[in-house]
Recover the amino acids of this structure.
């Protein structure tokens, strides 16, 4: 029997590399998975990739929703519950980077948009899921190594990633009497499209290859794979992490050490 046998898991940012890698692993461990993302086409592609890898389509639900919009969040959660029943695991994983700019020229609209996805979106999905969650469940919020440090110009992303830790700590205290564990996951740079976009923009700002720049800051000397981060998700979502709550799990190759 798998670690997630019979469990229902809802994943936001489900069409991205971390969401998809985590869905694949959770399914392999016996879970039912609801993937939430903004683009229906990306979700269709993600579901197709899961099916091509042997996942039972009957254990996969996709639902397009903007997690910054309360009614779309409500509809997504209700679709998951209608299909699979009460939720056991929420993986709040949706994210966007924004830009890098000095404080005097950082665009307000970009700052607000990044905060809306990472902070308001995480708040809204937790607000809707918690009443539909079984006692003894787990919430995992994807923060970042950026949620433990400051860097010039990264005002939206770093501020949002710190704010998610505050949300996690409030939830962990409130939900502990129900046996629901709440933790943040803090990846370092990951070998995926999200990070590639970040590094493409950053390279021009710092005047050198940004991938090499990050690898020099990581004691293990490389980016993580999405599958490595997914294994951390599984730990926090499953009984492997049964006494872990209110914590910041670093999966950053030592970058924050």
């Amino acid at each position: 029997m798998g670690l997630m046998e019979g469990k229902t898991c809802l994943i936001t940012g489900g069409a991205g590399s971390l969401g998809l890698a985590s869905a694949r692993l959770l399914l392999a461990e016996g879970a039912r998975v609801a993937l939430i993302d903004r683009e229906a086409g990306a979700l269709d592609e993600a579901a197709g990739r899961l099916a091509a890898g042997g996942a039972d389509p009957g254990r996969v639900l996709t639902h397009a929703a903007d997690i910054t919009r309360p009614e779309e969040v409500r509809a997504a959660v209700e679709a998951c519950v209608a299909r699979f029943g009460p939720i056991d695991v929420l993986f709040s994983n949706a994210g966007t980077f924004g830009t890098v700019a000095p404080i005097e020229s950082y665009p307000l609209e970009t700052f607000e948009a990044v905060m809306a996805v990472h902070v308001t979106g995480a708040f809204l999905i937790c607000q809707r899921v918690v009443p539909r969650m079984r006692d003894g469940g787990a919430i995992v919020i994807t923060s970042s190594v950026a949620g433990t440090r400051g860097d010039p110009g990264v005002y939206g992303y770093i501020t949002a990633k710190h704010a998610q830790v505050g949300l996690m700590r409030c939830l962990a205290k409130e939900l502990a009497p129900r046996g629901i564990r709440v933790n943040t996951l803090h990846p370092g740079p990951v070998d995926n499209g999200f990070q590639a976009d970040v590094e493409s923009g950053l390279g021009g700002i710092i005047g050198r290859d940004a991938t090499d720049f990050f690898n020099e800051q990581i004691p293990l000397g490389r980016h993580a794979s999405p599958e490595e981060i997914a294994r951390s998700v599984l730990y926090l979502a499953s009984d492997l992490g049964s006494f872990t709550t209110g914590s910041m799990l670093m999966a950053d190759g030592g970058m924050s050490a």
